[in-house]
Design goal:
The protein is of the alpha/beta class and 363 residues long. 43% of the residues lie in helices and 17% in strands. It has helices at 19-26, 30-38, 45-58, 88-103, 116-125, 142-151, 171-184, 200-215, 232-243, 253-265, 299-315, 345-361; strands at 8-10, 13-14, 76-81, 106-111, 132-136, 154-157, 166-169, 189-193, 219-223, 247-250, 275-280, 293-296, 325-328, 331-333. Strand 10 (247-250), helix 10 (253-265) and strand 11 form a beta-alpha-beta unit. Helix 1 (19-26) packs across helix 2 and helix 7 (171-184) packs parallel to helix 8 (200-215).
Length: 363
């Protein structure tokens, strides 16, 4: 006798079955279920029939959003980025492109324009056009991302959500290094220039800074949010000046570089009056005036690793064969935009007196 377990959302209310439910009932991997329902020709007859029986028993087929992939369609992977003009994604896209080409897949590059709604809509509407998806810095909620991972093969970059395969770039450790760097230079009044509220990485970085600051016996102010591009850096700089902080850690390099230009316009010297630290080490970060202290991230490696994990899932017939995650390290690259905290109060007076005595001794 076969027992079918019906998932319930709440007492008396039946939950919509997922690919994971079908996988558990039929004894195969979730990726195999996705292949069987979307591209049956890639799964052997016995396995496909077992999956279809399980899906029918759970009532999945009548409400499924999975559509068969067109016959003869080239194998393809969708790569979704939140802003295709952001240099942070250049390395990721280069890495995915090279690795997908080597594996015999085409790349579909999609710009979601920092919109969680557009990201969700594209994944649903274009599902029949790709075999799997790589979400670079997804703006979706944890709940929605988990649900999508049960409906289709996908992997997230720069995101950690339970149950969702991922490649995590360890920026939290890098942000701890950035804060320690600034504290070692004497800074005690530091601001975090936040990115979008929908960014998972933004919240993670803020929580990391708050914990690290408490460990140093100081507090960090949160300013923003700001869109992660160059122009909002001017508003970020104005906010930092108004807050009276001596050092800033920006959500990304584009905000930080925009800040440098605005601080220069307002006569605030970097790093003598204010230190600025970015994140990503994008192309041009070392060409700024002054060159930007920032977190260096292995973006191209992240793209290649994401492809490897996703394709291993597409080809696996057993959950035990799958890779699920990878964590890549970051490090702080110190340049000229960070320096000692400006002297204040009695310290400044002593410095001025010492400068006068030194000047008089050379007359």
């Amino acid at each position: 006798m076969r027992v079918v377990v019906v998932a319930m959302d709440s007492p008396g209310r039946r939950r919509t079955p997922t690919l994971a439910d079908i996988a558990a009932l039929s004894g195969v991997a979730t990726s195999t279920v996705s292949r069987a329902l979307s591209e049956p020709r890639r799964v052997n007859d016995a396995t496909r029939e077992r999956i279809e029986r399980a899906a029918a028993e759970l009532g999945y087929l009548s409400r499924s959003r999975v559509r068969p992939l067109p016959a003869g369609r080239p194998r393809a992977i969708a790569v979704l980025v939140s802003d295709v003009t952001n240099p942070f994604y250049f390395g990721i896209v280069r890495g995915t492109q090279h690795q997908l080409k080597a594996a015999g897949y085409q790349q579909i590059l999609v710009d979601t324009e920092e919109s969680d709604e557009l990201e969700d809509d594209i994944l649903r509407k274009l599902r029949s056009s790709f075999d799997g998806a790589i979400l670079a810095a997804s703006r979706l909620t944890d709940r929605r991302l988990t649900a999508l991972s049960e409906e289709m093969p996908l992997i997230a970059i720069n995101r950690q959500t339970r149950g969702v395969p991922h490649v995590f770039i360890d920026t939290p450790t890098g942000f701890q290094q950035a804060l320690t760097h600034l504290v070692s230079l004497g800074h005690r009044d530091i601001a975090y220039l936040a990115g979008p509220d929908t960014s998972w990485a933004n919240e993670t970085r803020w929580r990391t800074l708050a914990r690290a600051a408490a460990g140093h016996g100081i507090s960090v102010r949160r300013l923003g949010p700001f869109l992660p591009s160059y122009d909002p850096g001017a508003a970020a700089a104005d906010a930092a000046i108004a807050a009276g902080v001596t050092a800033c850690i920006a959500f990304n390099d584009l905000i930080a570089i925009g800040m440098l230009g605005r601080l220069r316009e307002r006569g605030v010297r970097v790093p003598q009056d204010m230190s600025v630290v970015g994140c990503d080490d994008i192309f041009g970060a070392d060409f700024c005036n002054p060159p930007l202290t920032t977190l260096t991230q292995p973006t191209e490696r992240a793209g290649r690793t994401a492809v490897d994990i996703l394709i291993s899932r597409l080809n696996a017939h057993d959950e035990r064969e799958m890779r699920r995650s990878s964590t890549l390290p970051t490090h702080l690259t110190v340049r000229s935009s960070s320096g000692p905290a400006p002297a204040t109060g009695e310290t400044a007076a002593r410095d001025r007196a010492a400068s006068r005595r030194l000047a008089s001794s050379h007359r």
